[in-house]
Design a protein that fits this description.
Largest sheet: 3 strands, mixed
Strand content: 5-15%
CATH class of the largest domain: Alpha Beta
Number of strands: 7
Number of domains: 3
Radius of gyration: 22 Å
CATH architecture of the largest domain: 2-Layer Sandwich
Structural class: alpha+beta
Order of helices and strands: HEEEHHEEHHHHHEE
Strand order of the largest sheet: 3-4-5
CATH superfamily of the largest domain: Chloramphenicol acetyltransferase-like domain
Shape: globular
Length: 232
Amino acid sequence: MKASLSKTLNPFYPVSGRVKDNLIIHDFQQGVPFTEARVKGNRLFDFLASPPNLGLLHNLLPSEPFCLAPHHHHHHPLLAVQLNTFVCGGIALGLNMYHKLMDGATTSAFLHTWAANCNVRDPAGSSTILLKNQPELRKPSSVFHPRDPVLVDQCQKAMASMIFPDVRPGGQKATTRRFVFDRNTITGLRARARSNKVTNPTRLETLSAFFWEAALKTSTTTTAGGPRHQLP
């Protein structure tokens, strides 16, 4: 898995770098920390039981979640990996990712590419995957059944209380807003974003430029009570 991870980092090279001044990514030669751990006293199924033991799940991660760190220092990795091996033969891959760099779609593409590169061959050169112990595949399958809305809701609340301590019951309340851009709006924004250097900007480039423009205007516009946060 180390070799396949190294191969996967070629097209995804930014994740091997470090953030400088919260503005740029550099030092790509720093790489991604890869930790191998053996889990004693617990089987893979113990971690999949319902309700999940979130205290145990923390041990499968290579480090404390990045979002809980007071500041993301320049020496912190943007991706960290921990390969956990159980006595039953099962494995669990723990990942810590810097969400400013890797969103859900990027993470999915990264994992699919890594899985495609992770083709372990035996010395004879066949494509047979070598396993020291046969994992207990039937037990996890009894847990990953079609989605139960109640279970999904419980897991979401549990993860929120673990990763976002401010939204625990009795803590501070969080407010979210969603902005929906329809086709006509995006077409108009793309027309505004065109230039001699970028004649046909993508939707991602267009919306990214729009958000940056709004952020810059907001950061330089203040009111008597402090900064004014609004979209132009």
